[in-house]
From TrEMBL:
Protein's recorded name: L-asparaginase N-terminal domain-containing protein
Signal peptide, first to last residue: 1-17
Ranges that cross the membrane: none
The entry's keywords: Signal
Lineage, highest ranks first: Eukaryota, Fungi, Dikarya, Ascomycota, Saccharomycotina
InterPro entries xref list: Asp/glu_Ase-like_sf, Asparaginase/glutaminase-like, L-asparaginase_N, L-asparaginase_N_sf
GO terms, molecular function: asparaginase activity
GO biological process, one term: cell wall assembly
Source species, domain of life: Eukaryota
UniProt-listed SUPFAM superfamilies: Glutaminase/Asparaginase
Species in which this protein is naturally found: Tetrapisispora phaffii (strain ATCC 24235 / CBS 4417 / NBRC 1672 / NRRL Y-8282 / UCD 70-5) (Yeast)
GO cellular component, one term: extracellular region
Domain L-asparaginase N-terminal, residue spans: 97-153
């Protein structure tokens, strides 16, 4: 049987050199409108590397040093149009349609954290391909403990609009159907549709942002939550730099499990996410007891089944991901392992 590991665990490939012609590069690689770039070229500064030395590119207006309330727009994919405004700064990281891997997600989080720690910046907008929306929303919600807006969108126009109308709501995700979600409850990964999210606002065709609630705080990441109180190291966006290898956390369907497969997996991975594929928990009797597997095993609900998976419904020696999707469960396990949390009893407390 062939097992597919998530794209989160793929190797990171980063651009090392600046294109000779920035305007031509954007047109060829992003299908992006750059109408104002040619006529306003003198108003932009291009730098060969950012502070992290990744070979990324920053395009900013030369008058920004005199301004505050700047919005940083981080490009990882999606659609964007360069705007020669004094309050906008663009930083190009990737041109990617597939899901960002774990290394790339942490690199983006480092840029976000550095930016929001600077008083000149009011908000961060991350423009992303559809397959990375869920991962960017969830990971930044955990790593970035700030009330400054961090908005993930496939379009910079809607991302900037939401960031501009959001005073202190932390990480948000704007989907293509124009709903706004907390990063923790971002819809499941899909390029075309949204599933399982909990929206907090709706955008109008005039780029208005209409919130459903006066205020909200997700219990999962509130100030009194287990993660914020007991696992404060999870906000360390540099944690991966101290590791020789990143944790391997595959996602596998419950129907594909057997004792043999489980034994083979446990010998080569750091944790396992199992997708519970059946509503009736008695219909699959693959493995009844996971107590001796040797690595943490988390069962997560599939997209098309029940909205919450309880601990009572999963086998002995495992825990449930509650309302978290398989991708979110994989990310949470990865963050925990990166920060040295390997004890199963501690990992159980992380999940809702």
């Amino acid at each position: 049987m062939k097992l597919q590991l998530s794209a989160l665990l793929a190797a990171s490939t980063l651009a090392a050199a600046q294109p000779a012609n920035w305007s031509k590069f954007l047109k060829n690689n992003h299908n992006t409108e750059v109408n104002s770039l040619a006529t306003n070229a003198t108003g932009f500064n291009s730098t060969a590397t950012n502070s992290s030395g990744w070979g990324n590119w920053t395009v900013s207006n030369s008058t920004q040093d005199a301004h505050k309330d700047i919005f940083k727009v981080i490009i990882t994919g999606g659609d964007f149009k360069l705007d020669n405004s004094s309050h906008l700064e663009y930083e190009y990281c990737y041109n990617q349609t597939n899901a960002l891997n774990l290394t790339q997600l942490y690199e983006v989080a480092e840029i976000v954290n550095t930016t929001i720690s600077d008083d000149r910046y009011k908000a961060v907008v991350i423009v992303s391909g559809g397959d990375s929306m869920e991962s960017l929303g969830f990971l930044n919600s955990i790593l970035i403990d700030s009330e400054k807006p961090v908005v993930i969108s496939q379009s910079d126009a809607y991302g900037i609009a939401v960031a501009n109308k959001t005073a202190s709501k932390g990480t948000l995700v704007v989907t293509n159907d124009d709903y706004v979600y907390p990063g923790v409850f971002s819809p499941y990964s899909t390029r075309y549709s949204s599933f399982g999210g909990v929206p907090v606002a709706a955008c109008g065709d005039d780029l208005s942002v209409n919130y459903f609630f006066e205020s909200y705080e997700t219990k999962f990441l509130s100030g009194n939550s287990t993660i914020r109180k007991n696992f404060t190291d999870f906000t360390n966006y540099n944690a991966t730099k101290d590791l020789d290898t990143l944790p391997v956390v595959p996602i596998i369907a419950e129907s594909e499990l057997s004792a043999t497969v489980l034994e083979s997996l446990a010998a080569s991975v750091d944790a396992i996410v199992v997708v519970a594929t059946e509503d009736d928990r008695d219909t699959i009797k693959t493995v009844d007891d996971y107590s001796n597997v040797g690595v943490p095993v988390v069962f997560a609900k599939s997209i098309n089944t029940y909205p919450f998976l309880s601990d009572a419904a999963v086998p002995t020696g495992t825990c449930s991901a509650g309302y978290l999707s398989p991708t979110k469960a994989q990310l949470l396990l990865s963050i925990a392992l990166i920060n040295g949390v390997t004890n199963v009893e501690d990992i159980v407390t992380l999940f809702p």
